[in-house]
Amino acid sequence: TVLSDSSNFEVKHPLNSKWTLWYTKPAVDKSETWSDLLRPVTSFETVEEFWAIIQNIPEPHELPMKSDYHVFRDNIRPEWEDPANSKGGKWSFHIRSKSSDIDELWLRALLAVIGETIDEDDSQINGVVLSIRKGTSKFALWTKADDNTEALTNVGTKFKQVLKLGDEDKIEFVPHSSTGKYVQATITL
Amino acid sequence: MVRYTVDELFHLKPTESLPVQFDAEEFKAIIEKVKQIQALKEEEFNAHGGHFNR
Ligand SMILES: [Zn+2]
Ligand SMILES: [Zn+2]
After folding, report:
1. Is A13's Cβ below 8 Å from some Cβ in B?
2. Per the domain annotation, does A7 fall within a domain?
3. ipTM for the complex?
């Protein structure tokens, strides 16, 4: 048809990777398992598709408590068990859930991640997560490796700029291998 | 590697809302439902003086 032909002429700006938006739904009854709660919502590989999604999903301040948004590269699942994540870790920043900045900071974090401006050379970033909780919510930037201190420090420094953090605000890097046992930050910025 | 600065990405934001490849209405409806259930639970909790009466 004329309509679908004309849409082919729209200029779309390709992203470096395909990305998938995942949502963790809060459990509302006990029968729900983890695989019922964590679900891919949709994927995108152009700037225009990204904006279309953003315009059609609730902003962070509209999400119920115990929700997570995850945006991960290619077909990486947003779980530390995924082979792409298993040798990695995450930079985390905690923010008061009442903060009016969460919507804006989440958008900035997404734009920095999908625009690939957090890394200098090849990409260390697997994905980014926003966890909405009562009291304190959390931003987390997931990396593919946990042992390249110099690269991770660069990534963390950039992540702080993206989140507009000052020297007094602290972010921590924790390898996934230490999560659940003795959670210990290996780098703090 | 294809890169875009945050500013470039903002400039590429379309002025009109574009269609998406998933059921956005269903997604929003699920979220609204969860919020309603959470609000009801909260209300019940508060009605019992801050504890659940089982
Ligand atoms: Zn808003
Ligand atoms: Zn500008």
Report:
1. yes
2. no
3. 0.85
